[in-house]
């Protein structure tokens, strides 16, 4: 008996030890992204275990799907198979889902966690779904399959009321420059819903590849979905480099079958994500131009000029209208979305200037110039889409030459196009390159994978879809915000995730949370738990915001160098060395700008809790100055 008591004590110590190991301090943190409207945290926790039940107190035909989603999350995290019951009158160890008409916002929800039960209330299933996403973020990080099964998950006692600031919280993916599999598109949608985004903008066609099959024009995918594989500037193909797998040359590309597209639409619908397909026109049109020469303007040698601003279809030809209306018919047959994106960006006008047909068309229709020609084309396409009961959205260039009636605008070149369009009474989605383009560098180009421009985490967090200089009476035309991932330099899912995370989280907060709740310091603190959550789920995120930028300034009187260091996350400790060694937790802490003695090699990194975060930054002044001198001499 005594031995048994000792064994039991040992088991208890072991179990407690394990439980304690599971519940690290980060587990107890309530770190919700995007930040909810209101959040009260109280003492104690609900213990989720294999006896926990789920009950639908009041639901619709679709509520079970939301419950299944929660069951999948819990099962994947810790192999606890929650049982679903109709009612749980004792209100003990139960998660209750309830449709509740008193909640005002269509996407809003309330989540109350007490020691005895969890209650998620919402006006509609979509709100219950978002409540579930928040609950997911309250789960401890360290649960895993080993600690699951008979274990317990401690969920902190909280009371949350939440609703989004904007109804449009969008994310785009360019699958033309690089092709992404059906599985990755589903994963991409999962990434979106974790952070309560709800519009997936599928950029299906563009110069480097056509990815949607069109029965009326099979060559679009038979030929246009493929190109000869290259490793250098691989996306930037020439007409001579079209290549099908059957050509015997290494082919790169692919497209989605109609069944796969339907499968993805269903997958998104079940997660309350609407998919907006984009059919680019009249520019970015190499695949149609190469496979259907009837679309090419007179005097446009597409094989040579296609990449020099002449990748536009001839809009003076009636065939072009028939071509795109047929493509739109099949697109609208597939996609149930009210909106269809018709592109309209970066349309070079020189091919139209040199084309007899286009010039004659301009005269016949009494148009002023090629800008009005584009507007005429876009308006006719818009009218066609409207005649089918749908609406169009286009990039902000569709304003030039006159905005088509009823068209919505996606403002990417900045806020201006969006402001003008909203002031004209058009609905607008803000997607300015200055704040929401995730294809841009998120850190020092010398250590980041190749990209364009610059868009740091802090820049994303400053995004506000409603700029100040918009007429207050027109603000309601701003539907929300939209982030883009163009894939010129992004070939793999891992790389796509690296570009998305953590900027996606910052973006989600700018389009969901109320302005008063936005606070970058608080965001960065909450982000730390999310790093762990993402890691647990095998998502490849970037730590670039922690990287240190080292700058030097010469004091020309004393001929000394002043060194400054900064990271995006100022509050984290920077440690540095001047002796060529790697910085460690024992290296001096950066306290502010300092003068160098004879040292020339500086290395620095961010550290927290004894762990290095991000890369080691390095500057070798001797080497740098020699290069600068050589450049000056030359
Ligand atoms: C765009 O980035 N060209 C819309
Ligand atoms: Zn033409």
Your description of this structure?
33% of the residues lie in helices and 22% in strands. By secondary structure, the protein is α/β, with parallel strands linked by helices. The chain folds into 3 domains: 38-162, 2-Layer Sandwich (Chitobiase, domain 2); 168-536, TIM Barrel (Alpha-Beta Barrel); 544-633, Sandwich (Immunoglobulin-like), CATH 2.60.40. Helix 3 runs parallel beside helix 4 (125-138), helix 5 runs parallel beside helix 7 (258-269) and helix 10 packs parallel to helix 13 (370-387). The model is unreliable at 1-23 and 144-149 (pLDDT under 50). The structure holds acetamide and zinc ion (ZN).
Characterize this entry briefly:
By secondary structure, the chain is α/β, with parallel strands linked by helices. It is 33% helix and 22% strand. It folds into 3 domains: 38-162, Chitobiase/beta-hexosaminidase domain 2-like (Chitobiase, domain 2, 2-Layer Sandwich); 168-536, Glycosidases (TIM Barrel), CATH 3.20.20.80; 544-633, Immunoglobulin-like (Sandwich), CATH 2.60.40.
Percent of residues in helices comes to 25-40%
Question: What is the CATH superfamily of the largest domain?
Answer: Glycosidases
Give the CATH class of the largest domain: Alpha Beta
What is the count of DSSP helices, taking H or I runs of 4+ residues?
20
Oligomer: single chain
Beta content: 15-25%
- The total number of structural domains is 3
What is the CATH-assigned architecture of the largest domain? Alpha-Beta Barrel
Number of strands: 25
CA-based gyration radius: 28 Å
Distance between the termini: 90 Å
Which fold name fills CATH's third level, the topology of the largest domain? TIM Barrel
Name the bound molecules: acetamide, zinc ion
Structural class of the helix and strand makeup? alpha/beta
